[in-house]
Amino acid sequence: xxxxxxxxxxxxxxxxxxxxxxxxxxxxxxxxxxxxxxxxxxxxxxxxxxxxxxxxxxxxxxxxxxxxxxxxxxxxxxxxxxxxxxxxxxxxxxxxxxxxxxxxxxxxxxxxxxxxxxxxxxxxxxxxxxxxxxxxxxxxxxxxxxxxxxxxxxxxxxxxxxxxxxxxxxxxxxxxxxxxxxxxxxxxxxxxxxxxxxxxxxxxxxxxxxxxxxxxxxxxxxxxxxxxxxxxxxxxxxxxxxxxxxxxxxxxxxxxxxxxxxxxxxxxxxxxxxxxxxxxxxxxxxxxxxxxxxxxxxxxxxxxxxxxxxxxxxxxxxxxxxxxxxxxxxxxxxxxxxxxxxxxxxxxxxxxxxxxxxxxxxxxxxxxxxxxxxxxxxxxxxxxxxxxxxxxxxxxxxxxxxxxxxxxxxxxxxxxxxxxxxxxxxxxxxxxxxxxxxxxxxxxxxxxxxxxxxxxxxxxxxxxxxxxxxxxxxxxxxxxxxxxxxxxxxxxxxxxxxxxxxxxxxxxxxxxxxxxxxxxxxxxxxxxxxxxxxxxxxxxxxxxxxxxxxxxxxxxxxxxxxxxxxxxxxxxxxxxxxxxxxxxxxxxxxxxxxxxxxxxxxxxxxxxxxxxxxxxxxxxxxxxxxxxxxxxxxxxxxxxxxxxxxxxxxxxxxxxxx
Length: 658
Ligand SMILES: [Zn+2]
What we know:
Blueprint: H1 7-18, H2 37-40, E1 46-47, E2 60-61, H3 72-76, H4 79-90, H5 98-107, E3 110-112, E4 115-117, H6 121-137, H7 148-151, H8 192-205, E5 210-217, E6 223-229, E7 242-247, H9 255-273, H10 276-284, E8 286-290, H11 295-304, H12 330-339, H13 361-372, E9 375-382, E10 385-390, H14 410-421, E11 445-447, H15 448-451, H16 458-465, E12 469-476, H17 486-502, E13 508-514, E14 524-527, E15 530-535, E16 541-544, E17 549-556, E18 563-569, E19 577-578, E20 581-583, H18 641-647
Bound molecules: zinc ion (ZN).
Zinc ion (ZN) binds near residues 250, 253 and 382.
Protein name: Carboxypeptidase Z
Function: Cleaves substrates with C-terminal arginine residues. Probably modulates the Wnt signaling pathway, by cleaving some undefined protein. May play a role in cleavage during prohormone processing.
Cofactor: Zn(2+)
């Protein structure tokens, strides 16, 4: 059962239901124009009075409108106008503000010098094509008053672009062809050039929170382009955790590449539109998206095309190397150390002999990226199955057969994998014959080595060499899905991607410093019972992903005495608790403890339960109508229709598809 709708939306929907039916009669004549100011072409221009349309690029309109509304009051009472003001919620932000501006161009036509100007038909058509899936998803008909052939004009007839304001600040050559606006998600496959253009354009639109940069080049010389989102793009901020999402490491597994291109546009648009959840995420997290780690392989796969791509062509990079087998195998090293009892599962150095083999430039670029950025959390997006797997990927079985091979952070990795799978509608689907049905009983998550074992994977390397925890997401059973499938893939993965990124705020974070407040870099954060240490970044800050429960946490660094604290992480905590450490140089005794905003507790050891102060500081994410986009089945009405019928006898039937 869907949760009750927000009261404001209910009111608006009630008003919409009560409002009159469309006034414009069916198309007349060959151009299909209604009678209205456009038919006459001369009009009396008046100031734009409509709130919902206050951000259009012009400031005068004329009455009667094309829909034969004769006053501002009549427009405001119309179901068309009310629909425009709730479209953003109904479509969960998709296609907006573009759709709203398009509607405004009809409901409050542009008036200039005593003449009404018409919006361009090609802009309407472009938007309709792009947004139709969003309407289909909620079983809503395309609004009759956005009929492109009836209410819009051609370039020859002197139309204007109602979305020109959204294109401001973009280079002319960066603008999309055929009048497509920049704010909607275009559910197509993107060539390398198109991908680069979308990422650059997105960064330009959101210049205050986004930035593109390259981490290196592929073997064939293509830039490995990353788009970064953060309150202060381009720099690490103290205690701000960093997340990376990587797509298309296997060139023929393309869904992840598209998901990250859409995600970049989505984050930018939602931030600009004021989404509380996205603003909170981007203001507290630095997010790096690398949609294609293997652009050369993609070219090979794309040349065959969706539906024709075999299981393997384009998987490798241009040197024929499988990039997810090309990282240093530290897992064997870990198993060897485990046998000799000098267990160490973190910051294992890269063995010399690794460099004697072939190392792909793409692999090197990732390793360099990891060295220069203190990543906390990561996901690598694949295709070919439907499951989330987590390290180790290399089996501890002596013959390398598949076998459950957990890391010391098994609990946390399970939690991370669940953060993705538990909110993915297909991964949660209980039918056994679905794609990825083998993983049904495990809740669609699995330890990598328990599935199949391989060496040189990126996730094992992340865990054993750096502070970063990486999971692997198999997005679906088709590696190169047809374009028609991309919209649904995005619908299924949007929430999991957001939810996963938000888990970077689980556990604890803080600063390790000396008694003068100077940061101590490379200090170790040890958690008792988990043989995997985290080290501090150059500013002395650290992040330790931890599952709920009580933990003994120790900070230590050469030349200093250890500091031990007990922290308790409540089950529902969503923001990392702050735990700072002040280290005393060896040979000196802790004297009067410094009091200050960073200090808490009264000794080197925090009182038990001391972390309860990190209780839930944030309200749950506001997700209007979230999770309610269930397409109707078998002739029943869509979910939003019941609001209309329960509230009024007047029903805007033109919103119904069937
Ligand atoms: Zn793969």
